[in-house]
Amino acid sequence: MSKKVILNTSEVVTCSGFEAKAGKAMMQVNPITNGAILIEDGYISMVGKELEVLKAIKSDEYEIIDAGGNTVMPGFIDSHTHFIFGGYRAEEFSWRLRGDSYMDIMERGGGIVSSVKATRESTLEELVAIGNKRLDSMIRFGVTTVEGKSGYGLDMVTEIKQLEAMQILKEKRSDIDIATTFLGPHAVEKKYKDREDDFIDFQINQVLPIVAQKNLAEFADIFCEKNVFSIDQSRRFLMAAKDMGLKLKIHADEIVQLGGAELAAEVGAVSADHLLQASDYGIGQLAANKVIATLLPATAFSLKEDYANARRMIDSNCAVALSTDLNPGSCFTNSIPLIIALAALHMDMRIEEIIISLTINGAAALSREKDIGSIDVGKKADIIILDFPSYHFLPYHIGMNIVKTVIKSGKIVAEN
User: What DSSP element (H or E) covers 157?
Assistant: First the structure.
């Protein structure tokens, strides 16, 4: 049996709990001053004051991990990303900076069409290799679990290829966990223009059954938005996915107030994501139906849009999660420090709420809150050690990575 103990902490920020924290409960990070953690075979077996923990062990039984007098907390969970895709759109980003419209960029072959073309042209091996590289970067930021979506194929072959790439990475890597999401209806494939219902039929009747049969995804997602997929089309796709055993997510109310938040509540989605334009009624429905509100501030920052109203959501008793939305177009970043800075400085979130959003609530957005997201007995020992003695240093270091050590299932997997 592998036995380890984390000692010499300034504080252990436990975020203790086995369900999402909503509203005022998002302030409850439950720190233990001078805490310690016992780890046995990759799972937490005891957490408490160092003196209490030391009484429970023989000194020679456990390998010691010295926290160096610093803060210890749960690993971060990046619960909304698109990290498997081919190609880049750097020139397009420069076009946007000079003021070119999205439609102008689309006419030049840019936008999602560019990413779809590059992803279709990428081999499975190439997607695995670039995914590997991006996972390495995530781990250095303290991410121990990440979600990845398909959605840059739109056809059957490439959507399956993206999901298979993530499946290979799941089996290959023990230093990060991957949750997979099928996002076939991310946009309308060109040949289905003005035939969106037919495209939804194609996704439901031809692609979804293969995804479900091969167990390639845990979740299904759709871009519910004006000029993309309507509420009715989104409902039809999501209910079909639910009937096939997939849990539900939804890109909701990002650009216009369409009613995506309300739909997420209606269909029993695990999370509704983006929500920049969510209505007060929709926010109330998310809270009442315990749907996680996953907010993606780096996307709003990149697009120079107003941020989702995190304060209103929390005050309405929503459970809020934060994530990077790493993708090739609107938000090419996997920087957790950037997310922390934007949430603190532009979304009126307290650091405790931010930490909860990136840990236990991120876990809940992936239906993993019973297993990860907090430092509790019985959970995986997914833990990070900061380079400073208080969690208040997280927003204070604006955009800077202060994660020193990353521990996944009790093993040190990265040291910065």
Answer: helix 156-172
Cα 221 from Cα 252, distance rounded (Å):
10
In this structure, what are the phi and psi dihedrals at residue 276, rounded to the nearest 5 degrees? Answer: -60, -30
Secondary element (H or E) of residue 71 = strand 63-74
| Sign of the C-alpha dihedral computed for residues 43, 49, 55 and 60 taken in this order | positive
Select from 384, 390, 376 the least CA-distant residue to 406. 384
Distances (CA, A) of 379 to 14, 24, 37, 244: 11, 24, 12, 29
Closest CA to 171 of 128, 214, 211: 128
Confirm if 363 and 145 have CB atoms less than 8 A apart. Answer: yes
User: Is-contact 350 324, C-beta < 8 A?
Assistant: no
pTM over 0.85: yes
- Largest pairwise CA distance in the chain: 70
Query: Residue 248 pairs with which residues in a beta bridge?
Result: 220
- Which region holds residue 72: left if phi is over 0, alpha if psi is between -120 and 50, else beta? beta
Residue 268 is classified by DSSP as T
DSSP 8-state assignment for residue 373:
S
pLDDT tens sequence across 346-401? 999 999 999 999 999 999 999 999 999 999 999 999 999 999 999 999 999 999 99
293, 75 contact by CB (below 8 A): no
User: For residues 396 and 227, what is the distance between their CA atoms, to the nearest angstrom?
Assistant: 41
Q: Identify the residue whose tokens are 């023990």.
A: 174
Cα 76 from Cα 60, distance rounded (Å): 31
